[in-house]
Amino acid sequence: MFNIKSFLVFIATLVAFISSYGLVAGAATNNDVSSNITSLTANPDNLNDGDITTVHFEFDDHSQPIKPGDTLSVNWQGDKNVYGNGYEKEMDYKIDGISVGTLKIFESKATITFNDNISNVNNVKGYAEFPIKGRNVTPTNDANTGYFNLYGGSKNVKITVNKAATTPSKENFYYKVGEILTDDANRVRWSLNINNNKENVNNSIVIGDQTQSGQQLDPSTFNIYIDGKINQRFIGKNAVNNFKAAYPGVTFDISGNDFKLIIPESLASGNHINIDYRANIEDYNQTTFLNNSQISYQVENETPVVEKEYDASAKNININGGIDGSGITQVSVNKVWNDNNNEYGARPQNVTVQLYANGKPTLQPITLDGANAWKYVWNNLVKQINGEPVQYSVKEINVPENYEQLISQNESQKFIITKKFQWLAAK
């Protein structure tokens, strides 16, 4: 006799088995293959609070094959007092110009996720390199040493982070700092700290500020904080206008990468004022970004300070990686003269050439002459910015009179500047 209850139990068991199998099969398309990590290092591995270490790991496909959807991961773990912060960036891995995966850096991990194009690639070998900021914020005035760990497959690295002892002391009246934040790695944050001891002043405070090359001040990013006799803040794209409206005696003039700030005595006395803003990074090959600042002020019953320099810098942050040896790139230039071997004696002794990245100047101009056979190669250039390839170009500065210039690209990022003498224009 047919037993409907037994049949339903059989069907339920079969469905559960099929569902379970489907989940396992699905997981195989997104498998962690971190066992393929062959080395993991951090340099340096002993930091002071706020210092940066460079993490480098290498991988291949010898431990297990790499398939579409597979992921390599490096994680860093600490506690609420001692930890590492990654800079949020990403880049593509390419073989012969075809993307096979993406490197992404997060606050507490780095991942490489491979796409469908990896399916026909054998003997995969590559690396990744990225910065981590070490923090030790242990709530004590005493010196403290702690650590956090990096993990990648079977590899691990211990990173020590030291916090110096702190003693109460009077701060400088003014200082300026710059940094690239871990969650905002494409901009530099500059911060002005004014009247840090909340002293009374006899006159207005006058500050000049000049953001230097490779970055562009964004006037919509100013934040202004006042604490002391007054507690107030102005944030958002209208912060500067709202600040000036609230305090009519304030002068805050912005022009390009420069600004001038005048804080009247009535507002400056007894108040600490912090002003921060962002500058968009334009030259990703630049190693350090600079900012110049000057301040004039007089603390009550003290000697006036006139245009004292307080300059600041911020180190650039980049990630790098390669697969089958790719990752960074190079650009070459070759100067060719089409003037019948300088028949008219118009050829200059040398020429100056500027390299451009995405249409903007990068690095210093170079000189081509007979000594270097009119050739030059830029090495170790950034290959990608935010996952997009950098478009490099070259341009000669001050083209000689009576010469017509033609710039061609005979291979990927190999430029030829041909100079043809214009016979009819010869004098």
From TrEMBL:
The protein's location, in the record's own words, is: Secreted, Cell wall
Q: Lineage of this protein's species?
A: Bacteria, Bacillati, Bacillota, Bacilli, Lactobacillales
The name on file for this protein is: Cna B-type domain-containing protein
Q: Which stretches make up the Collagen binding domain?
A: 172-296
Q: Which UniProt keywords apply?
A: Cell wall, Peptidoglycan-anchor, Secreted, Signal
Principal location class: secreted
Residue stretches making up the CNA-B domain: 331-419
Q: Which organism is it from?
A: Fructilactobacillus cliffordii
Q: Could you tell me which SUPFAM superfamilies the record lists for this protein?
A: Bacterial adhesins, Cna protein B-type domain
* SDR-like Ig domain ranges (all copies): 48-133
